[in-house]
Amino acid sequence: MLVLPGFRGYKLREQRREADRIVRSHVYELMEHTRDDLTTCLQALIDNKLTELVEPMNRLIAKTDRVAEKINHASYGYTGFFDSVRIEEPDLDRMLGYDSQLMDLARKTSDMTTALRGNLTQDRLDGVRNSELQLDGSINSLELAFDQRKSIIEGVKV
Question: Does the predicted TM-score (pTM) go above 0.70?
Answer without folding.
Answer: yes
